[in-house]
Amino acid sequence: MFERFNRGARATVKGAVAEAERVGAGSVTEEHLFLALLDQKGDRASFAVASLGLLRRRASLEASFAEARRRGGLTKAETDALAGIGIDVGAIVDRVEGAHGEGALAADRSSRRWWSGHRAFTPGAKSILEKSLRIALGRGDRFIGQEHLLLALTATPGTVADTLAEHGVTHTAVHHALYGPEADGEGHAEAG
């Protein structure tokens, strides 16, 4: 599938690996893909990222990702849903960290990279790459670009989409930033 990625999308994927290496993660996650996307310049996705104000909110986004990792990957929506039935995730995290140390639930337990020499992509990250292909094909595009990765990140439930939504950036907002409001309906077949 990598041969279908254009130069910018390849740079994003390579940047995600570098981001995982920078933070010492054993595998490449959706977060790493998103953060690498923020670092890219000069294409439609970088324009959308800038127009949505994501560059100036990077620190806030990274803090939200860190908090989600601390909760064992649970999104804020999942945490709120559990609170609705009387489960206090914060209290659970505090007890686990009290017994096992700070960040115990956030630990990256993947050790495959130590044996293979590279960082594997998590199932979630692979899902984003596959979804970006479906989005590109659904739009009639021959190659996967950074805009398809950005759309896939916002259309796929999980920590990145949830965190972006908390910051006011939804799949629809990204679609509008990329293609304009007049493009509604176009390319939404794979949004759900």
Automatic annotation (TrEMBL):
Residues 2-186 form the Clp R domain. The keyword DNA-binding does not apply. Keywords: Repeat. The keyword Calcium does not apply. InterPro entries: Clp_N_dom_sf, Clp_R_N. SUPFAM superfamilies: Double Clp-N motif (SSF81923). This is Peptidase. The lineage of its organism: Bacteria, Bacillati, Actinomycetota, Actinomycetes, Kitasatosporales.
